[in-house]
Amino acid sequence: MITREPIFLPPPRGRFEAAGRKCLADLRETGVCTKYLASALWALRLLPASRRMRKESVAQMFVAGIKSLPVITFVAIFTGMILALQLGLELQRYSQELYIGSAVMVSLLREMGPFMTGLILAACVGSSMAAQIGTMSVNDEIAALEIMSIDPVRFLMAPRLAAMIVITPVMSFYTCMMGVLGGGVVGMTQLNINWNQYVQNALEFADLRDLYVGLFKALLFGMIIATTACYEGFSTRNGAVGVGQATRRSVISAFLLILVVGYFVTRLFYNG
Amino acid sequence: MIRFEHVTKRFGAKTVLDDVSYEVRKGEVFFIVGPSGTGKSVSLKHMVRLLQPDEGRVVVAGEDISHAPDSALERMRERFGYLFQGGALLAWLSVADNVALPLREKTKMSEEEIHDKVMRTLALVELENDADKMPSEISGGMQKRAGLARAIVRDPEIVLYDEPTSGLDPVMSRHIDRLIADLNNKLGVTSIVVTHDLNSALSIGHRIAMLKGGHIVELSTPEAFRASTNPDVREFMDAQFKIQS
Ligand SMILES: Nc1ncnc2c1ncn2[C@@H]1O[C@H](COP(=O)(O)OP(=O)(O)O)[C@@H](O)[C@H]1O
Ligand SMILES: [Mg+2]
């Protein structure tokens, strides 16, 4: 049952009780999110059989991709340029500026690519997902689905999750490529490295493993974005004001989780 | 058919239903009237367990729906059609697709059968010419009628109507009244109607309950309701009919 009523408690006695309650509420939220994620993943087993779910997933992918493409392109190119410039100026002091190719490539593949993509998708796509589902909640549309015994997690969240699981790694890869391109332009114009040398250096030092780990991270970020957006959407109350709050909260939670999960994945794969 | 047993519902400090008990009989057209914000919608939501009581229980066809396990809920909700106050149509589906949704998701009917059934149901609410419009392209009253079509498309035993006629013009309101009465006469649908519209209640209701301050202050037939000396009922009736005349 998704349509839930708010929990009413008497006002807390003192700061200690308030803090304790906040912790419990956060734990509870984490639990509910995990449950939604698990049921949505489980619902994805119906994807091959359900035409509606496939169509909806593809539609969501297009929306997500097209909505974020201009921003992602822009941010990716500039990230690459900034990386190349900063590193290049530093490396120039030791006459090693040739190595910016690999430096830009590796930092994008491992960290910056998935991270930037995650943040941008959370802001562009996650927020509108939360707003849409939140509006449905306050209009009783979610309740209507429940009365008809149409599980909102299967009906709404699963296709969005599928879309984000596919589109975030794709976009992350695209971000890396655009970033490398941007870095190359800076290399040529500011650091006097020719394009072929730059690309050769980039490919030589980049490990296939870096690519995989980066894509894996992006996949996790995609799940985080879809889950926080749907969770906040489903828990929306209080009309238009509530929709605004849900949108903001979904973006903030996604940002924080992307940072934390990103750190732990890095630790898992690159620590020893 | 639906029995409230000592149902108490609080939202924080606010008690919306206070030890309410009544029974809606099978095949009845049961009206719940009362001022705004007295818990009429909350009452309806208890019948399908969109809300759960703090105390007491709601029994549907002999089964306690308030405390039934989630696994039994789907079967129990199958009996119900529910018209929400705003219609609750999905914004990205056309009117016809909205009405077809429960058939597509929950039955094994072929697309042809579904199309037939949808068009017949839309004809009942006089929306057959707007089947392909999107919810945003039609008026609030039309959205509500489309919501009504969706609520009854699977031929439920019990239909819950949350303000079916508010926002409709008088002619359409009477048409919807007739539809509710017809569903009841011809198909034996048990109907629970929440409304401000005393006209509807007095003309097609079998019994009328008035809810105020968390209590049922009056529960009687339309004739007895009209003649009631209960001050709350008098006030409500006077207010409504004075404005209209
Ligand atoms: N989910 C909810 N959370 C908190 N308060 C609610 C909720 N649903 C209804 N209420 C409160 O309960 C009261 C009755 O609401 P409702 O049943 O919608 O009134 P109406 O009789 O006009 O349909 C209102 O004061 C409303 O604020
Ligand atoms: Mg209401």
Low-confidence stretches of chain B: none
- Count of discrete domains of chain A: 1
Instruction: Give helix % range of chain A.
Output: over 70%
Low-pLDDT segments, ≥5 res of chain A: none
Briefly note the CATH topology name of the domain at 1-79 and 191-245 in chain B: Rossmann fold
Major β-sheet annotation of chain A:
none
Radius of gyration of chain B: 18 Å
User: Strand order of the main beta sheet of chain B, please?
Assistant: 6-7-8-3-9-10
What's the architecture of the domain at 1-79 and 191-245 in chain B in CATH terms? Answer: 3-Layer(aba) Sandwich
Please provide a written account of the structure:
The complex is a heterodimer of chains A (272) and B (245). By secondary structure, chain A is an all-alpha fold. Helices cover 83% and strands 0% of the residues of chain A. Chain A has helices spanning 14-43, 51-92, 100-138, 141-147, 152-190, 195-205, 208-234, 239-270. In chain B, strands 6-7-8-3-9-10 form a six-stranded mixed sheet, sandwiched between helices. In chain B, strands 2-1-4-5 form a four-stranded antiparallel sheet, covered by helices on one side. Chain B has a domain at 1-79 and 191-245: P-loop containing nucleotide triphosphate hydrolases (Rossmann fold, 3-Layer(aba) Sandwich), CATH 3.40.50. The relative contact order of chain B is 0.17. In chain B, helix 3 runs parallel beside helix 5 and helix 4 (111-124) packs across helix 5 (140-152). The chains are: A mainly alpha (272), B alpha/beta (245). Chains A and B meet through helix 4 of A and helix 2 and helix 3 of B. Magnesium ion is lined by residues 40-41, 85, 162 of chain B.
Topology:
The complex is a heterodimer of chains A (272) and B (245).
Chain A: H1 14-43, H2 51-92, H3 100-138, H4 141-147, H5 152-190, H6 195-205, H7 208-234, H8 239-270
Helix pairs in contact in A: 1-5, 1-7, 2-3, 2-5, 3-5, 3-6, 3-7, 3-8, 5-6, 5-7, 7-8
Chain B: E1 2-11, E2 14-24, E3 29-33, H1 40-47, E4 55-60, E5 63-64, H2 70-77, E6 80-83, H3 95-106, H4 111-124, H5 140-152, E7 158-162, H6 170-187, E8 190-195, H7 198-204, E9 207-212, E10 215-220, H8 222-226, H9 231-244
Parallel strand pairs in B: 3-8, 3-9, 6-7, 7-8
Antiparallel strand pairs in B: 1-2, 1-4, 4-5, 9-10
Helix pairs in contact in B: 3-4, 3-5, 4-5
The structure holds adenosine-5'-diphosphate and magnesium ion.
